[in-house]
Design a protein that fits this description.
This protein is α+β, with helices and mostly antiparallel strands and about 675 residues long. Strand 12 and strand 13 (about 315-320) form a beta hairpin.
Length: about 675
């Protein structure tokens, strides 16, 4: 008798007693070709061992579930929970208009062998095991969260391929780097007999929370005497840890010390630093490792370490918060390298680190939305640094560089086509602006950000204009007299600030509201059609069948057309209709739509999670292949859990498109 495979989800998270319970409540079920599950069967959970089961709703195809006999490429057998209802999964159906929700129908496409598990047994286990509850939830966001947790756990527990760069390897490598790799706080030394007021002024001007204090001759003898006593009564320090005695003669005064003095009603103008400074400082050599610094800070419960070079001079102060930021977020290192870049070569090194950061974060299970927003921040720093390396300060002050498309929305993971523009202050001119724009776009291409095939870049005069002509152009786009106008308008709606005068972009956003209000009332209905032009989920999923027959996978699912674009553009249209133009991100637009009452919170969460699932799958393709655009996915390479979630996310897209058609009163194409 066939048995459940407890190495596959959702059964791989079961305890021994839970596995035994399921075995007792499992039986083999046979369905002949064209035979359907009865209504009495729809309280069970099924695993397809052999054959194929088609899921339909009111006669319309929804999905197919396959057994292992269909393809040796499948990682595991498909499964389905027949208790799920269209209503619980947020599907909009024709019957809902009449107030009646029909159940799904399950029909064997051919002779099919199933494992049937009693739903009550599944419910009992779900009540005790939150992992099973999440994996089998009828709420898509819950199951996507479970998948994310599995990826995180697998990345940490199982390890990754030898040629990959894991977060753990990253931390280990960083711990072995010299402390000077971390950005050091500047050195400001004040005499011990200086007043607290002088110290506070130096700290304020330097933007620091401390100053180093040089002891007076009398105090220096006391410090040296104390150090001698310490050396006599303590065990020798590790050779790598604490530096020579003469290097510990400086003291430190912090903002906390000054607050303590004020609380004791001391006069800052007359009270000297030596009364509140701490001496006998722990220090560390510049060639010591970051791991040594962290160990010293932890052992002695200190937050700052003066760093001493081989000549005995203080070269900077290592702050604990900077060390932790360096260790916890590799992005901190990248940001520093971008800021310190002096030329294109050094900037290229930082850009390569962004790619490494993306891989490490994704493989460590970090949520894709968090990764994409951090990448947006780092890319913006790259663009800013490059622009400032190219143009004089007056150009920076009188222009505004913006990015658009997925980069503007903060949903860009891979380095795909550039989408950028330059807004110029009215009345400002510079004879080399066109040349600057051309250099900027070509240098970005050299850094690995490909030129835009549609030429939506600042080297195109249409995307490099003074504010007033830019506004006039936007007004023209709202007239929608050219098929390209909707594409151009979509780009500018996604515009996000990079550097320069941000008020120029704010003026553009205000004009977008004005131009929209002045446009034809039917404009939005035409604008949304782009989200509806690609095939529906059933058309895409039915292409999965020939893949399992061993035919060439020329019909892989296009994640952008089938999933990402309809969601992004549909939400963009709803945001435009509701004057939500101050935020270009899809997540920000969804939040605004909930606040405006255009969507409920559950619907917004489902759309957001579906979009992030498509983005994560696309990134997985990019990291595992040489596909530049990473748009197509082969369903046979996915686990049963991932295939199930892919079906559900595609169903969310279909439901959303139906919602858009109903809202804008458009007939189905």
């Amino acid at each position: 008798m066939p048995h459940l495979d407890f190495t596959q989800p959702p059964f791989d998270v079961l305890r021994l007693t839970e596995r035994q319970s399921l075995k007792k409540n499992t039986q083999v079920r046979y369905l002949g070709a064209n035979e359907s599950l009865s209504s009495d069967d729809l309280h069970n959970f099924f695993v397809v061992l052999k054959g194929q089961v088609d899921q339909t709703l009111a006669g319309e195809f929804v999905a197919s579930y396959f057994g292992s006999n269909h393809s040796d490429q499948l990682n595991s057998n498909d499964w389905f929970d027949s208790r799920r209802t269209p209503e619980s999964q947020g599907r909009i159906t024709k019957s809902q208009n009449d107030g009646n929700t029909e159940p799904y129908q399950y029909t064997a496409h051919e002779d099919t062998l199933l494992l049937q598990i009693d739903g009550a047994a599944i419910d009992k286990i779900s009540a005790q095991n939150h992992l099973v509850r999440q994996l089998l939830s009828d709420k898509l966001p819950e199951r996507l969260k479970a998948l994310q947790q599995r990826r995180s756990t697998q990345g940490q527990a199982l390890g990754l391929h030898a040629d990959s760069y894991t977060a753990q390897q990253e931390v280990q490598q960083i711990m072995l780097q010299p402390v000077t790799d971390v950005i050091l706080l500047p050195v400001h030394i004040i005499d011990a007999d200086s007043s607290l007021h002088q110290a506070a002024r130096i700290m304020t001007e330097a933007g620091l929370k401390h100053v180093l204090v040089r002891p007076t001759s009398h105090l220096l003898e006391q410090v040296r005497g104390t150090l001698s006593d310490i050396e006599k009564n303590s065990k020798p320090e590790p050779e790598h840890s604490i530096t020579r005695r003469s290097d510990r003669e400086l003291g430190i005064l912090t903002d906390t010390d000054i607050c303590r003095a004020v609380s004791e009603q001391q006069d800052p103008a007359t009270t000297t630093c030596q009364h509140f400074a701490s001496f006998n400082l722990r220090t560390i050599d510049a060639d010591n490792e970051i791991g040594d610094a962290l160990m010293t800070m932890t052992r002695y419960r200190i937050h700052r370490l003066p760093v001493i070079d081989n000549k005995g001079q203080v070269v900077g102060v290592l702050g604990q918060s900077d060390v932790l930021a360096y260790l916890g977020h590799h992005s901190q290192l990248i940001s520093i390298q971008i800021e310190q870049a002096k030329d294109l070569n050094s900037l290229d090194t930082a850009v390569e680190l962004i790619g490494r950061y993306i891989r490490a974060q994704h493989q460590n299970g970090v949520k894709i939305g968090i990764v994409s927003r951090m990448v947006q921040t780092l890319n913006a720093q790259v663009f800013t640094k490059l622009w400032k390396l190219i143009v004089p300060d007056e150009v920076v002050a009188n222009t505004c560089v913006i990015v658009m498309g997925s980069e503007g929305r903060g949903e860009q993971i891979m380095r795909t086509d550039q989408d950028n523009a330059l807004i110029i202050r009215d009345g400002f001119t510079h004879p080399e602006l066109a040349q600057f724009a051309d250099i900027f776009n070509n240098h970005l291409a050299d850094l690995g950000y490909p030129l835009c095939d549609g030429n939506i870049m600042m080297n195109n005069p249409m995307w490099r204009q003074p504010l007033k002509p830019f506004k006039a152009q936007i007004s023209l786009w709202f007239k929608n007299t050219d098929p390209m106008h909707s594409i151009y308008l979509s780009a500018i709606l996604d515009g996000e600030y990079v550097c320069g005068d941000e008020s120029l972009l704010k003026d553009i956003r205000e004009h977008l509201k004005t131009a929209h209000r002045q446009s034809d009332r039917m404009f939005v209905r035409q604008f949304v059609r782009a989200a509806l032009q690609f095939g529906d989920v059933n058309q895409w999923w039915q292409k999965f069948v020939p893949l399992l027959s061993g035919k060439p996978s020329s019909h892989d699912i296009d994640l952008k057309k089938a999933g990402i674009f309809p969601l992004v553009h549909g939400i963009r249209t709803l945001a435009l209709e509701n004057d939500i133009l101050e935020v270009p991100s899809t997540k920000g637009r969804l939040k605004g739509l909930v606040q405006a009452g255009a969507l409920n919170q559950e619907r917004a969460d489902t759309l957001s999670e579906a979009l992030e699932f498509f983005m994560a799958q696309r990134l997985s393709v990019a990291l595992s292949t040489d596909d530049k655009y990473a748009r197509h996915i082969d369903p046979t390479t996915l686990s049963a859990l991932e295939r199930d979630l892919l079906k559900e996310c595609l169903a969310v897209v279909k439901s959303f498109k139906t919602q858009l058609r109903q809202h804008y009163q458009l007939e189905a194409s």
